[in-house]
Amino acid sequence: MLAKNNKEYFRSLLIQQMDEVLKKADAGFSGRTDSKGAAPDLIDQASTETDNVLSFRIKERESRLVKKIKASLAKLEDGTYGICEECGRGISEERLRARPIARFCIRCKEKQEYEEKLRGL
Fold this sequence. Notes:
Elements: H1 4-30, H2 42-78, H3 93-98, H4 106-119
Helix pairs in contact: 1-2
């Protein structure tokens, strides 16, 4: 369980992180226009399509990050923030400061990554 002052620290850290993600998303989106058919040749059209695909992937990633931040904020409210979802032990404050949206303690995360590596993921 986090102390009250630490709870406020992580709440402001998460809100700041969400604001940054949303500002980046707005900035990236406002510069985009629909340029379908505007490219004069196939190479320009392919380049535009590649840019659009990359932009879409970035938006997807930002969307997932916002969901994780919201989930972390909800955990702060219900008192489960900083508790590993795998083993139920506390997640170190050092880890939470480095990755405020962490869901697993370092031991469980390393185990998960090792198992993914073995499966080739």
